[in-house]
């Protein structure tokens, strides 16, 4: 009994003497972070990120959830000046095939996109399109993405923090992060010639290059039958969306500018009323 107490006392003293003191800034930085523990920074959670920041001078702008406000708070804690603000990012889905895309065989395996992809390359004829089994919806910690009526994931912009989880989990790479301020994005990733693409999906990009030819900023280029937007050049003029015949260049649904453009076109097509003299 006495020996046990003796060794217990020794261990307690050793624990106190040998304890590694944590830098108090770690707790301060942890409190400044949003506490979502989503892993978007590439680390297991906010405390792990805070520890890296304080102990290893890790990059402080890797938290998309907290955004610029969090960056400035952390910079203040660390005594940093003139910290460049991060560009807010949001997830965008680059497919509009969904239930309209051709199915090449009946799939009865696990209801995950990753499992379906590993089964003969997926059950859709289009190898670039969404499989619609919702892996992205299950990994979003902010309930910012859900499966819509057309069998495609729908991003709720107001909730999306750009955490990248949906991007990482998608086996078809049809979800990417783009600047939140950009109103247009291409909703097709097809890289096959039009006739071949049409066998699997009737609403894919036909690589007509009208978007490329008409963009005043040269912000969109068709490469390998696929339209690609350079967001550093894009000014949201919506010219590409207006000339696309399919269309596969989709302005954000809430874009007032685009709605006004469509309303104007409709008014111009309507015949003017004839006035009959008395």
Structural commentary:
With 278 residues, the protein is α+β, with helices and mostly antiparallel strands. It has three domains: 65 residues, Orthogonal Bundle (3-methyladenine DNA Glycosylase II, Chain A, domain 3), CATH 1.10.15; 95 residues, Alpha-Beta Plaits (2-Layer Sandwich), CATH 3.30.70.20; 72 residues, Alpha-Beta Plaits, CATH 3.30.70. The chain has a two-stranded antiparallel sheet. Strands 2-3 form a two-stranded antiparallel sheet. The radius of gyration is 26 Å and the shape is globular. The protein starts with a helix and ends in a 9-residue tail after the last helix.
Which key phrases capture this entry?
Alpha-Beta Plaits; globular; 278 residues; two-stranded antiparallel sheet; 8 strands; 3-methyladenine DNA Glycosylase II, Chain A, domain 3
Low-confidence stretches: 273-278
Cα-to-Cα separation, first versus last residue: 119 Å
**What's the CATH first level of the largest domain?**
Alpha Beta
Helix/strand order, N-terminal first: HHHHEHHEEHEEHHEEHEH
The helix content is 25-40%
Radius of gyration: 26 Å
What structural category characterises the helix and strand content? alpha+beta
Output the strand order for the largest sheet: 1-4
In DSSP terms (H or I, runs of 4 or more residues), the helix count works out at 11
Strand content: 5-15%
Count structural domains. Answer: 3
| Record field, number of beta strands | 8
**Could you say which overall geometry the principal axes of the C-alpha atoms support?**
globular
């Amino acid at each position: 009994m006495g020996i046990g107490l003796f060794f217990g006392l020794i261990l307690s003293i050793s624990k106190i003497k040998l304890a590694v003191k944590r830098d108090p800034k770690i707790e301060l930085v942890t409190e400044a972070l949003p506490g979502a523990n989503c892993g978007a920074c590439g680390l297991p959670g906010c405390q792990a990120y805070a520890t890296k920041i304080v102990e290893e001078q890790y990059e402080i702008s890797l938290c998309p959830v907290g955004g610029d406000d969090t960056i400035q708070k952390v910079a203040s804690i660390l005594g940093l000046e003139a910290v460049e603000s991060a560009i807010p990012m949001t997830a965008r889905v680059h497919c509009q095939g969904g239930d309209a895309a051709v199915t090449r065989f009946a799939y009865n395996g696990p209801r995950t996109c990753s499992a379906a992809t590993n089964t003969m390359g997926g059950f859709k004829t289009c190898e670039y399109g969404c499989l619609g089994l919702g892996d992205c919806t299950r990994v979003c910690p902010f309930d910012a993405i859900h499966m819509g009526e057309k069998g495609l994931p729908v991003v709720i912009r107001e909730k999306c923090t750009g955490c990248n989880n949906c991007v990482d989990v998608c086996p078809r790479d049809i979800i990417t992060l783009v600047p939140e301020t950009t109103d247009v994005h291409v909703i097709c990733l097809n890289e096959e010639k039009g006739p071949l693409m049409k066998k699997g999906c009737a609403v894919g990009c036909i690589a007509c290059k009208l978007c490329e030819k008409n963009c005043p900023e040269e912000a969109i280029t068709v490469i390998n039958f696929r339209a690609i937007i350079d967001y550093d050049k894009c000014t949201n003029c919506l010219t590409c969306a207006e000339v696309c015949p399919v269309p596969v260049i989709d302005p954000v649904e809430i874009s007032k500018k685009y709605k006004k453009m469509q309303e104007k076109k409709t008014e111009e097509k309507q015949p003017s009323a004839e006035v009959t003299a008395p």
